[in-house]
Amino acid sequence: MFGFILRRVGMLIPTFIGVTLVAFFFIRLLPGDPILLLAGERGISAERYAELQHAFGFDQPVLIQYFHYLTGLFHGDFGMSMVTRRPVWDEFFALFPATLELSFVAIVIAVVIGIPAGVIAAVKRGSIFDYSVMTSALVGYSMPIFWWALLAIIVFSGWLEWTPVSGRISVMYFFEPVTGFMLIDSLLSDQAGAFESAFSHLVLPSIVLATIPMAVIARQTRSAMLEVLGEDYVRTARAKGLRRVRVVGMHALRNALIPVVTTIGLQVGVLMAGAILTETIFSWPGIGKWMVDSISRRDYQVVQGGLLMIAMMVMLVNLVVDLLYGLINPRIRHR
Amino acid sequence: MKLLTKALAATALAAVLSTTAQAKTLVYCSEGSPEGFTPALYTAGTTFDASSHTIYNKLVEFERGSTNVVPGLAESWDVSEDGLEYTFHLRKGVKFHTTKDFTPSRDFNADDVIFSFMRQKDPNHPYNKVSGGTYEYFGGMSMDSLIKDIVKVDDNTVKFVLNQVEAPFIANMAMDFASIASAEYAAQIEKTGNLDMFDQNPVGTGPFQLVAYQKDAVIRYKAFADYWGGKAAIDDLIFAITPDASVRYQKMKAGECDVMPYPNPADIKAMDEDPNINLMQQEGLNVGYLAYNNQKDKFKDVRVRKALNMAINKQAILDAVFQGAGKAAKNPIPPTMWSYNDKVQDDPYDPEAAKKLLEEAGVSDMKTNIWAMPVQRPYNPNARRMAELIQADWKAIGVDAEIVSYEWGEYLKRSSAGEHDTVLLGWTGDNGDPDNFMYVLLGCDAVESGANRAKWCNEEFNDLLVKAKQTTDIAERTKLYEEAQVVFKREAPWATIAHSVVFMPVSTKVKNYKIDPFGGHIFYGVDIDK
């Protein structure tokens, strides 16, 4: 097992270098000069332009800039935002807990609802339940997030008044963040009603963000289960007279889980993409919105740093997924 | 569930009320996060709302809701005979905010003024390079070359010596970059060596004091009890950062916001009909235009420019692009600005006359292009649509125009270099001075620097502007600018399209809110019913 872990971690190094390359060069390939964007309609004199080019290091050859960037990275320096003039690292960690909290709750919702729905749909194949789950999954998967989010706000916050419109907690509550996770911080704050407020603010965005992963997980679970349920060993288990719940839960599901776990791992990347829209619409102060703003402003350092850190998170999750395979299916460890 | 939410909201409110007995709180659903809290370092209006309009003051200020310059931290000022020296007499007894890091030992004085300007002007100033050290507005308004020296006459008097006569100087001094920070606080921080702290934990003399900022979420202020103008009527000011306009409106309806900026045009009608919303509106200090590149042969004949102007159906543009939130423009400055010449007659919409004029000029089968901005701006909500309408109008008089667009930075760069035939662009005023529109956008100097997208240098027009720059007599300047507008209309370097109307939905609980002509959002002087 140790050798397996070492091999998987070793593979992260070239991936990391690859991501730095992509992050660094792709943003520079986009048309648009960050200094001109900063100046806007006002324009900028040639001298001032040269001064700023020098100040941001853009007057050096791109390869030298990349070298400086890499050197900085190895010293823990992710650079400084051209817009806010604050270290990228500080900004990322101020915003990341909000994204993590939202994504975590969303993936939990997606798994807790998606897997059982997929299993039941497979077991009751061809039933009304099966058709309903698969149709809902298709609708959930096809709905544009921004539209679904606005619709949810209009219906649940506007008409029904079940949930607040946006934000992480009512602005009436104020406490210093301790962990950055609002549910925990609101409990720690000891302010009456703070936790309930934080919870009610989390409901709508997490459901919206969970929608696509939930649909994908439900469909994947159903198809994996259908395949496994037709296997000989499942028939044997049934023939032995085992209870149906045990056959489905212990024999079939465990084997069906491998592709499902892969899907869940891949959905973490999808969550990041979904978080960008969900965060913007629900005024959720996470890294999704931060990245979008930075791309439109061509804030190179933030885009590079943010992409790199998001990629590292996704790599980490996929590493965990790989290790989980080993637990679910011992044969994988020895390959 | 509905009951549960309401019960929770009631508990929350009760908890707050019990801790802040009868405090008046105003929630402003702002459109984005500030770049930082030192106005001199940044250029975005969102940043100025969160810093210079709350935390800081300037020596002179714009009167709330107008472009008039009124005393701020300077009670009065004198201008020397030659127009080169401005002496400011500073207000006494002005306090700086006390924060957890800083307790001021003295009142505001001339040292603070010198510090605030020299940080921007002097590259060797200890704070010049702090927080990135770029001062776009200070440089953009040519203050670095304009200010020769700043002299402390005594603790309460400071003199600015200029290199040349520049009448708009006093209006520039009311701009956000001219906010005054504490030199004492800067000196205290300098001792710690962590100079960035100065910009992160701001200390000013303004009506509100920063309490906390959570990026992309919320900014909290409390009223500064010792404010020299008297404590603000609201006790707590909260900026709830809400980037999406539809969501801001939903929050407004749910009572989670008291004021919101930049509503969606599609929501305007519903807002107007909502009994809980007071939908305020005012013409913005801006102009959207189409500039003809006068360096290209095809536009050198004024009859061609006039003909193209006469072919444009502005009313159709106002209806389709501005959806009622715009007013046809005839001058290069907006009607709310002093010296606006209302006697100027706009070119009439007359395709037949336009065709004849083109024939007279000997032009047939003209081919050109229309550059359309890729972004939405206050003066042009949809440039692509506008370009399509103009394209159709021109087609009707036999002019074929191709629509061209680039990424925004590229667009600005290429149009500045004069690669276009005609280009859609616009401008929002910085300081309420006509010079800030006419000289910046149409002066001969601006052909070289790029801001003059018409590449039009007219000696008669330029002389009037230069004269107006060199006199501080407002009546005289008004006459000169009025005359300049007549020349502008006669020569038609632009098709003036529209001035947009700014809508501001405000809760009916909010009293005395005024729309800022510069597009800012200002809460000192505003009250709210409990």
From TrEMBL, chain A:
<feature type="domain" description="ABC transmembrane type-1">
    <location>
        <begin position="96"/>
        <end position="325"/>
    </location>
</feature>
<keyword id="KW-0472">Membrane</keyword>
<dbReference type="InterPro" id="IPR045621">
    <property type="entry name" value="BPD_transp_1_N"/>
</dbReference>
<dbReference type="GO" id="GO:0005886">
    <property type="term" value="C:plasma membrane"/>
</dbReference>
<dbReference type="InterPro" id="IPR035906">
    <property type="entry name" value="MetI-like_sf"/>
</dbReference>
<keyword id="KW-0812">Transmembrane</keyword>
<keyword id="KW-0813">Transport</keyword>
<protein>
    <submittedName>
        <fullName>Dipeptide transport system permease protein</fullName>
    </submittedName>
</protein>
<dbReference type="Pfam" id="PF19300">
    <property type="entry name" value="BPD_transp_1_N"/>
</dbReference>
<feature type="transmembrane region" description="Helical">
    <location>
        <begin position="302"/>
        <end position="328"/>
    </location>
</feature>
<feature type="transmembrane region" description="Helical">
    <location>
        <begin position="102"/>
        <end position="123"/>
    </location>
</feature>
<dbReference type="Pfam" id="PF00528">
    <property type="entry name" value="BPD_transp_1"/>
</dbReference>
<feature type="transmembrane region" description="Helical">
    <location>
        <begin position="256"/>
        <end position="282"/>
    </location>
</feature>
<feature type="transmembrane region" description="Helical">
    <location>
        <begin position="135"/>
        <end position="160"/>
    </location>
</feature>
<keyword id="KW-1003">Cell membrane</keyword>
<keyword id="KW-1133">Transmembrane helix</keyword>
<feature type="transmembrane region" description="Helical">
    <location>
        <begin position="12"/>
        <end position="30"/>
    </location>
</feature>
<dbReference type="GO" id="GO:0071916">
    <property type="term" value="F:dipeptide transmembrane transporter activity"/>
</dbReference>
<comment type="similarity">
    <text>Belongs to the binding-protein-dependent transport system permease family.</text>
</comment>
<dbReference type="InterPro" id="IPR000515">
    <property type="entry name" value="MetI-like"/>
</dbReference>
<feature type="transmembrane region" description="Helical">
    <location>
        <begin position="198"/>
        <end position="218"/>
    </location>
</feature>
TrEMBL record, chain B:
<feature type="signal peptide">
    <location>
        <begin position="1"/>
        <end position="23"/>
    </location>
</feature>
<dbReference type="GO" id="GO:1904680">
    <property type="term" value="F:peptide transmembrane transporter activity"/>
</dbReference>
<dbReference type="GO" id="GO:0043190">
    <property type="term" value="C:ATP-binding cassette (ABC) transporter complex"/>
</dbReference>
<comment type="similarity">
    <text>Belongs to the bacterial solute-binding protein 5 family.</text>
</comment>
<dbReference type="GO" id="GO:0030288">
    <property type="term" value="C:outer membrane-bounded periplasmic space"/>
</dbReference>
<dbReference type="InterPro" id="IPR023765">
    <property type="entry name" value="SBP_5_CS"/>
</dbReference>
<dbReference type="InterPro" id="IPR039424">
    <property type="entry name" value="SBP_5"/>
</dbReference>
<keyword id="KW-0732">Signal</keyword>
<dbReference type="GO" id="GO:0042938">
    <property type="term" value="P:dipeptide transport"/>
</dbReference>
<protein>
    <submittedName>
        <fullName>Dipeptide transport system substrate-binding protein</fullName>
    </submittedName>
</protein>
<dbReference type="InterPro" id="IPR030678">
    <property type="entry name" value="Peptide/Ni-bd"/>
</dbReference>
<feature type="domain" description="Solute-binding protein family 5">
    <location>
        <begin position="68"/>
        <end position="446"/>
    </location>
</feature>
<dbReference type="Pfam" id="PF00496">
    <property type="entry name" value="SBP_bac_5"/>
</dbReference>
<dbReference type="InterPro" id="IPR000914">
    <property type="entry name" value="SBP_5_dom"/>
</dbReference>
